[in-house]
Amino acid sequence: MKKIRIAILGLGTVGGGVYRLLEMRKAEMPKRAGVEIEVAKILVRNIEKAAKKADRSLLTNDWQEIIGDDSISVIIEVMGGMEPAGTYIMEALKAGRHVVSANKDLIAVRGRELLMTAKENHCDFLFEASVAGGIPILRPLKQCLAGNEISDVMGIVNGTTNFILTKMTDENMEFDEALAVATELGYAEADPTADVEGYDAARKVAIMASIAFHSRVTFNDVYTEGISRISAKDIKYARELGCDIKLLGVAKNTPDGIEARVHPMLIPCSHPLASVKDAFNAVFVHGDAVDDAMFYGRGAGEMPTASAVVGDVIDILRNMEWGSSGRIGCSCYRDLPIKEIGDIESKYFMRLHAEDRPGVLATIAAVFGNNGVSIAKLIQKNTQDGFAEIVIVTDSVRERHFQDAMAVLEGMSVIRKISRIIRVL
């Protein structure tokens, strides 16, 4: 039986999981994929350290040993980062090697280039693991839901922030306290910026939107806000309104262009995404034929991510066996505009402190009215030192009109401060 030789670039958390899972499935691979497999080489930085995870004879720190070996047909990139991963993948594809990657950073920026290079060289370039870990979402968008016109892709695609917000909601923690717990348990990196400021989720939104709407969306196209300014008080008030706060990635295909954004949102407690707790992820998809579908599971971790990587490997092996490599490549045949955040319509939750005297609420309402903002709910909360805390929820309004109203309010002497603004689903 034909044997396919595979190389793995990186042996960190995910790379170690991929190697282990390939070895676990090695005996059954002829029946699952129609071919035998052999892990031929593993590229690592520190051979001594990596020897604790894999057979030392497989380890190398020289990329040329892999790219120069014509017997290696499939390369798995789980190094992460833009470089040298980007160079290695491009060289592999140009050499006619099939590539599996989990590299959301690279794909969210250079996805089109990589996919076109794969097409030119009749190769597969698959990257299911780049979004939502072990949850199948990219392949369903490209294949199972290919008969649909997808209008919405929305979800919780960062486990770290969801864990933090769950702790803040269920245990009344402040952000810094919840982040410390997430770090201690290994959910947050030593530098959590990419997670808590929304950059990780934005990369995933760019990838999903590109596939769902058949038009290229890159990381820089995605409007991004994080959760670092969310407080326990915001969550308390959201609960009073029957809502939870989640960091959502939102992509919409509208007649005026694509909306692509990541930011905290109040969502009704009855919404399916509100029940997604801790480090779990979920993606909610709406198509004109399928209606609503939700994909739920573990969005990160050694074995869940390895599951997605090895699934892609098996897909490539099957394609090789049946002579159909490269059959599903870049699906971006459209060139749709990306909407500016100022043109997007949302409802808003805001919390502000204003002087507690007659006429102030009427003045605030007048500012909103003059800028086309309709108030759906207004609640006056505690009063201290002559200032009342006011919670306002608006009806749907164009972002730029809402921001015009905010600019006026911030300049008024009766307003001490605007403490928080959060969009509402």
Automatic annotation (TrEMBL):
It comes from the Bacteria. GO terms for molecular function: homoserine dehydrogenase activity; NADP binding. InterPro entries: ACT-like_dom_sf, ACT_dom, Asp/hSer_DH_NAD-bd, HDH, HDH_cat, HDH_CS, NAD(P)-bd_dom_sf. Keywords: Amino-acid biosynthesis, Methionine biosynthesis, NADP, Oxidoreductase, Sodium, Threonine biosynthesis. L-homoserine binds at E189. Residues 349-423 form the ACT domain. It is an enzyme of class 1 (oxidoreductase). Pathway: Amino-acid biosynthesis; L-threonine biosynthesis; L-threonine from L-aspartate: step 3/5; Amino-acid biosynthesis; L-methionine biosynthesis via de novo pathway; L-homoserine from L-aspartate: step 3/3. NADP(+) binds at L9, G10, L11, G12, T13, V14, G15, G16. Its EC number is 1.1.1.3. Belongs to the homoserine dehydrogenase family. This is Homoserine dehydrogenase.
